[in-house]
Write a structure and sequence with these properties.
2 copies of one chain form a homodimer. Chain A is α+β, with helices and mostly antiparallel strands. The first copy, chain A, contains 11 helices and 22 strands.
């Protein structure tokens, strides 16, 4: 049963935590947040503590006063979470699932084991291992652990790229000549109730591997769309995860859907749900971990999302150029992440654009992308 | 030009301030809030200071470190605000306008002076004055100052009600046999740009004079709707107010629109804009006081709003009954105000319901009203 007295802890105080806190205000829930950065985005809007998320004692200490503990980043100490779980704290997503997802090698084996469609892959231990598998190219080489926001991923098309390989445990994955990159956010509460948000499509920055534009809903046939949702729901049900799960997928040129990777938390591909859907991904995550009924995921209006990255060549206190111009555009929602300092390609915020006219939506998204700049 | 470094102060830390703070998070603006109650709703989500809003020194001290100072309640010290204004702080709404609105006697005279349609009235100084004007009944008797949330208002239908009259300066206003109560929120920035939200209609609790249901948009002819907006815009332009202004109006049985009263701040009649409109009243207020372009006020979807009042007969730590049931309903958005203690008829939160089917919208609103209860 809902109680505003439930003590909820969040590991990680970045923008995802920030938007989770912002959503929790509606339920009178004062979230407690742990982050190593004393200036993390959650700092001034939550009960904020500074500490290392990978340190067992710190995480255990932080979590033991919570009724429910959740994450906004996967790189956290699992041993502490398992201890807390044994001590009766509800840890959602469950620690053993975070452990699976933390390591892309284990994650990929999980898909294989449960017949979830995914690109073929080879486990590699060292750089030499990657070089040995030259026959497998073109491929994507990913570090098993600690990849983040495009880091820890290298595209190795030909022999001449082999030098980029990581000399650490990873996977070598067949490069998929995909038609589109899709994402579906699914949710599951403790009762086992599940549901899926509409499928969205993303356009990535060609070099920095960050989402540049997102469109919701994706332009897909009903069949493909249902297939994508079905696969995403299969993943969360096989994992028996409590919380939300963002499932990133490739739609191949021959209409196949392959799971790329998943994130057991609010995700960049769900920001637009704040304005465009009946329930936001943040509220859905809270509903799931508090065992409340899941909210309706339907769209109120089509939307696009543009990440606001620090402009290349600028480092220092952030200044937003073009703000007035974009605020003049109808249906524009600016979200800044509380970061005072900008760096090249740092995620400083995002903008959601809502418009029932898809043509105008696209034009507005491009206008926002080209107009709003983070400089210093 | 927009800067995330702009220091904004808010006088009042109640639910309106809380939702303003929640909205300001999107712009990286850390709001500083002053409220006499150490447990005010804004307490844990802002830079919060405890102090008397009617004390000149306290308000002056609080305001002098701000670039922009605003209010979420009208009962504030005007002398301090006028000093701050002279010292270069941007005080929006402007102090002389708050002063007009604070006193219903001056407010009414303002309407008269500018030919803004409003119910006929008589200024009264004492209870004896009211009794003397028995020929004016049936009437509504209002205290000039310090009325709030239904307090300070008495309906005096016949001679036998005369004993309820306040023995203090007030107004005696002709009781309007109205068809509907309407409200329009309008905004104006420093550049003088203005716009209006769609007209909403309200149903009040018959005894406690608090909004029970709100429907947006109101069911009105286009002609009446345009007339209501035009009058509301006239009020904000005549006042030359910077910020938002909620204009409450009566639609009389013969299609006339009369201004009842105004509030120069976010208002109970605009909560639903958070989910249902392109721009929320809170963001609109921020845009107006920061001299940013005003946002599009259009609706994304029709909505209803239900105030969540403390159940009669319960005082103490709040417990929410029926939360699971209402959260199961599609399009329901619960907003709790961060109040730990409930009292009979205390405003503890509100629920917005969005549905494009107007029939279902009404049913859902009634279901929410009858299901979600604040007890202790």
């Amino acid at each position: 049963m809902f109680s505003q007295e439930t003590k909820i802890g969040v590991l990680g105080g970045g923008q995802l935590g920030r938007m989770l806190v912002q959503s929790a205000i509606n339920f009178n829930l004062d979230l407690k947040v742990l982050d190593p950065d004393p200036n993390a985005p959650c700092k001034s809007i939550s009960q904020f503590e500074v500490g290392n998320l990978k340190d067992e004692a710190t995480v255990h200490q932080f979590g033991k006063t919570c009724d429910v503990l959740t994450i906004e980043i996967e790189a956290v100490n699992i041993a502490a979470l398992k201890r807390l779980e044994q001590e009766g704290v509800k840890v959602f997503p469950q620690p053993h699932i975070i452990e699976i997802i933390q390591d892309k090698r284990i994650q990929k084996q999980f898909y294989k084991q449960y017949n979830i469609p995914t690109a073929d892959f080879i486990l590699t231990e060292t750089k030499a291992d990657v070089i040995k598998n030259v026959h497998f190219l073109p491929a994507v080489h990913k570090l098993g652990k600690d990849g983040y926001d495009g880091r820890g991923v290298q595209i190795i098309r030909t022999e001449s790229d082999l030098d980029k390989a990581f000399d650490a445990p990873g996977i070598l994955e067949k490069l998929i000549p995909f038609e589109k990159e899709l994402a579906v956010i699914v949710a599951r509460n403790e009762k086992g109730e599940v549901n899926a948000f509409p499928v969205v499509e993303m356009a990535f920055h060609p070099v920095h591997n960050l989402v540049e534009y997102l469109f919701a809903p994706a332009t897909l046939s009903e069949e493909i769309s249902q297939k994508a949702k079905k696969i995403a729901l299969e993943v969360i049900e096989k994992l028996e995860l409590v919380g939300i799960l963002a499932v990133e997928m490739f739609l191949t040129k021959d209409g196949e859907i392959l799971v790329n990777e998943v994130a057991p938390r609010p995700h960049n591909s769900g920001h637009q749900t704040i304005e465009a859907n009946h329930t936001s991904q943040y509220e859905q995550h809270l509903r799931a971990i508090l065992n409340l009924p899941l909210g309706d995921t339907a769209e109120k209006i089509p939307s696009a999302m543009v990440n606001l990255l620090g402009e290349d060549g600028f480092s220092g206190p952030a200044v937003y150029e073009g703000m007035d111009e974009v605020l003049k555009v109808s249906g524009v929602h600016v979200h800044l992440y509380g970061k005072k300092i900008t760096k090249p390609f740092r995620k400083m915020g995002h903008v959601t654009i809502c418009d029932s006219n898809l043509e105008k939506l696209r034009e507005k998204a491009i206008f926002v992308k080209n107009t709003l700049k983070v400089k210093s």
